[in-house]
Each structure stands twice: as structure tokens, then as C-alpha cells.
């Protein structure tokens, strides 16, 4: 008999014991076993697969039937022994929010330097020569013949006048500075998102009585 593999099985298939009794449907398929009503059966205990039905070997089926008979007649004793037949655990799952941080560029600061012109006035004292003309009377004296001839010749006497002139010079000096610095600050933010949570409800399939019936 060839061993059954997981590719031949799927959840929801009916499982029957070797005596033909229905044990339930496949709830979970693992690597080498299936789970039916909380009970695990290895692939080696499967005799054959026909359509939507899985048939176990007679040895496994007889053991299961015997266990169920004992559980029905002495359920209290089985519970006292600490072995719960048909136990099914359904996990409840919930999502939790987590926050991670990463470095991003939030902006930038640009520092521009421009040139402006302004008018300035600087006081300065300048010296200059002034010409003054003064007439003085002197005692008469005779001129020599050569002096007399030259004295009556027209002539222009030029007297240079000197003074200080202001010359504007410019030089660049440092009058101040702008310091650009960065520091870290901490801000508190609130982040929110939608999370999911599973809720398990049990429906035992029993009919409910109608009120007023």
C-alpha cells in the first residue's frame, strides 16, 4: 500500500475509521499528519483516499472507536486522567502598532551674501595757502641807470599757492560675522493606524427556542 502524501489531502475532507465510522473532517494538514477534531493521525495510518473521503486503517479505526466508547461511558475518568480527547485550540490574534525611526531631510536653510552700496561722509581738515598783498611805503632812493630801465618794463610775477587735497581711499575691513549652527531638538508626535483583532465565537449547532412559543 502506497503511503498517502499531503498533495492528496485538503482541509474539509471527511475522515472515516477502519470500521467506516465518521470521525469528522480534516482541520489542519501538517508535514506528516492530519488533525481531525483535535486528534492527530499520521499519514501512515491512512489506508486510502477516495474522492472527498479519507479512510484510516482498521487498526487505527478500532483504536479510535474503542477510545470513543470509553470516553462516552466514563468521561469523568478520562478527564481525571488529564487526557482531553477532541480538544481544539483556536488562537485569538491581534495586531500591535510598532514605531520605527529613520533619518529624512526635512528642509534646508540657505545663507545668501549680497552687496549693498551706501553713501558715507567722512570729515577732514585740509590746509591751503592764501596770498595776501600788502603795500608798504619805503624811503625814496635813486635807481641805477640799469634798474630804471628794467623797472618800467611790464612784467607778471607768479606766486604758486599750495594746499592739501582730499583723496578718498577705501579698504575692506571685517565688521561682524553670521554664525550658522545646528542643534537637535525632540518633539512628541502621536501616530495612529487601524489594527485588526480576531474574535472567536462558538456555535454548538443546537437549535434555540423561540420566546413566547
Automatic annotation (TrEMBL):
Residues 1-26, 60-85, 184-213 are annotated as: Disordered. Residues 184-207 have a biased composition (Basic and acidic residues). It comes from the Bacteria. InterPro entries: DUF2382 (IPR019060), Stress_Response_Assoc (IPR052967). Residues 94-202 form the DUF2382 domain. Pfam families: DUF2382. Residues 72-84 have a biased composition (Gly residues). This is DUF2382 domain-containing protein. It comes from uncultured Chloroflexota bacterium. The lineage of its organism: Bacteria, Bacillati, Chloroflexota, environmental samples.
